[in-house]
UniProtKB/TrEMBL annotation:
DJ-1/PfpI domain span: 7-175
InterPro entries linked: Class_I_gatase-like, DJ-1/PfpI, INH-QAR
Pfam families xrefs: DJ-1_PfpI
Gene3D superfamilies hit by this protein: 3.40.50.880
Protein's UniProt name: DJ-1/PfpI family protein
Length: 198
């Protein structure tokens, strides 16, 4: 299909597995179940290739930064690997470039810390993992931190809370671009029920 709109999911060393794979499951299911919607999802990493995640899983990034297709949506996951990214000038510059080129930036967990370090959340509402909301405020005191929200949609930026909250955010993306019926179909298809088991 021509004219596909792309969703890129960023990978990096020590990315939290579910931060990336949770949104992938939702968004890839959506793309396959509703191909006429015209969306495709891919993974990318700075150099492409194998990325070692926080708990030891290896994931192969489908693209490098150099050969990744232009994205309409970018998902920046979190995890231990975000800590060095907060002071990685090259990565922060790349994130700022994405802000200029990508209509919708999203983050999961501590991915929002990277956005804050890059200056992309100034004066905006945002959230992060419960254990890092104070750090989010320290990185940029102008951020309106929302510690109790599963995700925060501020138009061209969506941030989500920790780890499994990325699934909620991804379902919200489906609802936003494909409608509530498609989001319900995806939610049922992946049998996601956020009610706690205990």
């Amino acid at each position: 299909m021509t004219g596909m709109r792309n969703i890129g999911i960023l990978l990096f060393e020590n990315v939290e597995e579910l931060d990336a794979v949770g949104p992938w499951e939702v968004l890839a299911y959506w793309c396959k179940r509703f191909p006429d919607a015209g969306w495709a999802v891919h993974t990318l990493a700075r150099d492409g290739g194998v990325v070692r995640c926080a708990k030891g899983m290896d994931i192969v990034a489908q693209h490098s930064f150099a050969d990744a297709p232009p994205s309409e949506i970018l998902v920046h996951p979190g995890g231990r690997g975000t800590r060095p990214l907060l002071t990685d000038d090259d990565h922060l510059a790349w994130v700022r470039e994405r802000r200029a080129a990508v209509p919708l930036l999203t983050s999961v967990c501590t991915g929002s810390l990277v956005y804050a370090a890059a200056g992309l959340l100034s004066g905006r509402p945002a959230t992060s993992h419960w254990s890092t909301v104070d750090q989010l405020a320290e990185l940029d005191p102008t951020v309106e931190v929302r510690p109790d929200d599963r995700f925060v949609d501020d138009g061209d930026v969506i941030t989500s809370a920790g780890i499994s909250a990325g699934i909620d955010m991804a379902l919200h993306i489906v609802a936003r671009f494909g409608g509530a019926d498609q989001a319900r179909t995806v939610r049922r298809g992946i049998q996601y029920d956020p009610l706690p088991p205990v």
